[in-house]
Amino acid sequence: MAPLRFLFNRLMPLWLILLGIVAYLQPHPFLFLHPYVTYLLGGVILVMSLTLTLGALGDLVRRPLALVAGFFIKWITVPLGGWIAALVVYSHQPQLAAGTILDGSVPAGVSSNLFSFIGHGSVALAVSLTFIHTVLSPLITPSLTKLLASRFVAVNFLTLFIQMVEIVLVPVVLGLAIRYAVGEQRLKRGEPVLPLISAVLLYLIELGLISPAAATIRANLHWIPIVTVTTTALILVNLGVAYGIARALRISDRKSRAIMFDTGVYNSGLGAVLAAANFGAFAALPPLMNATMNLIVGALLAGILQNYPTASDEAELGPAPLVGGPGVHVTSGM
Q1: Which of 46, 7, 19, 13 minimizes the C-alpha distance to 209?
Q2: Which residues pair with 108 in a beta bridge?
Q3: 324 with 132: CB under 8 angstroms?
Q4: Helix/strand/coil for 155
Q5: pLDDT tens track for 155-202
Q6: How many whole angstroms separate alpha carbon 215 and alpha carbon 192?
Q7: Among residues 236, 292, 289, 273, which one has the least CA distance to residue 102?
Q8: C-alpha angle 78-19-213 in degrees, rounded to nearest 5
Q9: Among 209, 207, 198, which residue's Cα sits nearest to residue 277?
Q10: Which of 85, 96, 103, 298 is the most buried (most CB within 10 A)?
Q11: pTM (2 decimals)?
Q12: Among 174, 176, 136, which Cα is nearest to 54's?
């Protein structure tokens, strides 16, 4: 299992790049996947939800400053950054503008849990924030997209809301129900295979998104470097601003690191699917680029912070609640 995990999960950024190139150069064999990308993403979120637990909330509910701060930092700074990038960089490309704003309005990716764990952040806080973001996103994502992207494209709030319920909320509820019905101990036996399932689903999603957009991308190839630089800049700014605000609020370094990763690493797989479905295939380009870059940047930053442990790590972290599950093997990705 370990070699497969390394091949499919640890090398995810490499595979995302390679499969994106393949789908761009040879789109026709993968066009059949496009109608199924929403179901594939629902499968990824279902797998993710099998590892979620309400038990991590405990101490955070009793001392909620970090939880409340992390929630508002994520939902204010990231959408605002996407909106500014849309105005400054994509003002004459409404699809790219809308895709960037929508991508900044999706919940955090479970990969942020992994990076918090590696980088000596508070895993309990990271898991709790991911859970809260995911559950509330069917309401928040359409609202922010409608508010910020309407000047670029027509945004149908009800359509987005229904899509979020179908793609996010239903799989989360189903996953939690399965976890409760099966029992955590039994579920743990199957956890080693969950990251592999999620990774395969994500690769199929990318193929299903890029292949129908290949012709449009080819006609706008000059935008690729611009999207790459803009996306990377947004990630770095979001990470830095989130950490800075958290520390300014006198939140501990350990919890500030968790808030930083929660803010800077978001579920761009969801953003890409929603952007393609609502604004056209070309609109999925910024989220797809972000899906790759936030894994690369997040992994590099977590690796650096791993060499700088914070005080009382063992006391707070203890056994990582998601080790062995998708959140610690870069599964939902995005």
Answers
A1: 19
A2: 266
A3: no
A4: coil
A5: 899 999 998 888 888 888 888 888 888 877 787 777 777 777 877 888
A6: 38
A7: 273
A8: 70
A9: 209
A10: 103
A11: 0.79
A12: 176
